[in-house]
Amino acid sequence: MHNPGLHRLLLSNFAPNPCEASFIRFQIDDINSQISRLRSQLTELEDQLQLRRAVLSPMSRGPVPGNIWLTYNWSARAGGTQHDSPIDSGVLFHFTTSHTPLTRRFSSGSASFACGLLQSTALAILLVSLEGTLDHLTLDYKGPQCFQNFLDSLGAAAEGPASLQRRSWHPLKSFTLKFDGEWNVSPDPLQSMFHHLPPYITSFELYLPHKWSDAFVVDSDSDAAPLPLPQSLLEQLSSFTLGCSWDGTRWMDATLAHCVNVETLTLDSMGTVWMYDNDDPDTDRIMNSGLLLPKVRTLRLRNIYPPSITLLFALKTPQLVELDVHFDPDEGEVYWVESQPFFPFIGQSDCDTTLRLLHLRNAYITTGELTDLLFNLPSLTHLSLDSVVVDTGASLIDALFAPEDSPEPLLPNLETLELLQLRPDFPSHHLLAFLKSRIPYRIENEQPVFTNSQDPFKRLNVMYQRTKGENQELDESEVVEVLRRRCGVYLNIGPTFHVD
Fold first, then answer.
1. Exposed, middle or buried: residue 152 (CB in 10 Å: 0-12, 13-18, 19+)?
2. 364: which strand partners?
3. CA-to-CA dists, residue 331 to 19, 364, 370, angstroms
4. How do residues 272-294 score in pLDDT, each as one tens digit?
5. Which of 81, 120, 186, 203 could be bridged to 153 by S-S, CB 3.0 to 4.6 A?
6. Are residues 194 and 228 in contact, defined by beta-carbon separation less than 8 angstroms?
7. Hey, how many other C-beta atoms are within 10 angstroms of the C-beta on 299?
């Protein structure tokens, strides 16, 4: 892209002024970020390409350098059973064979693993035969018994030459385990299959059967379901993802109470209403005091049904830096997010001075509620509002202004604002007024004169929804031009995409 200002600086012997230098540094950061995203997309596309090639011609095509693909059709082999398996044809395994251990990866495809002895044995032999170590492993099963079959097969396969003892399973540090249809586990912790997980895991993702699945006769049975995770496993984790739609707080006590070293915690509620008994003494204790998570710096709530945001009452995160809440609203009925449930969580965590980044996604919230929430988070430096809808007749930007009678400014430390998936008819004049309020200026002799150089605001990222409408004109406004070219504020304003 042609940039006259950059071209002029390259041809001159003069150093850029402070604003120009700041702007160029922002451009460098943005280009590096785009390169990183593109590389990630390229890797994903290459994987998808090889997956499709393997499906079309798994036997005639030799392995692509650096990758090995193995396709095994269980139903075509004598002794294969499928009656208890959620797959119909085969399972695809993929792992890289790079000499760099950090790039070695082995994971399942999108289908779940079959449950029979033959299938478990084949996978176990493959694992113990791999050279080097794995970076990550994902296993997706119908129920715990299938996973136990694999563990038994793995133990048998490893009872061989010394070279096989150095199998990829043992040193694994990142592991994802999913169950989607059964939950028949012993409540006795000493008999727990989780004792046989790789001993050095520091990153663990566990997805439990949905409370509406065949694992439970009725969904309320999930309240009493055992979850015998070893305390030693939980205490060694630095990253933990738990996909759980179960009712009550028993599952919390069994897991979160022991996450003393977890720094990144992700809780996926699977879009269900979380029910709990207020009269239960343990639940009362957890909901009124919170489970201490002393090292959590990043908390992500995924697929949260808006009324279930009270889940925050059960958490205490005194070191919290980033809060990411991804709501899963009911498509048939709008549930408005209230700010009140956030306040007890912020108070008991005492994180109002540590919290720097807030992400809200798929939220219906009034401007008043959003303003109240932001007013109680004065240390925020990064605010991301993705697919956030406010009340009729108001603008999302209205929530970013402090009330007229307020003695304190709103978001005094804000450096970055992201507004994503905006409607094409989003009123740009509200956003321009906000920008000018943060970095006020006047024009003298056709040049901007800035009247407040202390505001920390540095970056704006705006992206619109796809539409057949006209292109947005925000990018061409005077305010954007002045702040971008004269003050070094990075403004990324995405186009209104056309849909044919």
1. middle
2. 389
3. 46, 12, 22
4. 888 888 888 989 999 998 999 99
5. 120
6. yes
7. 24
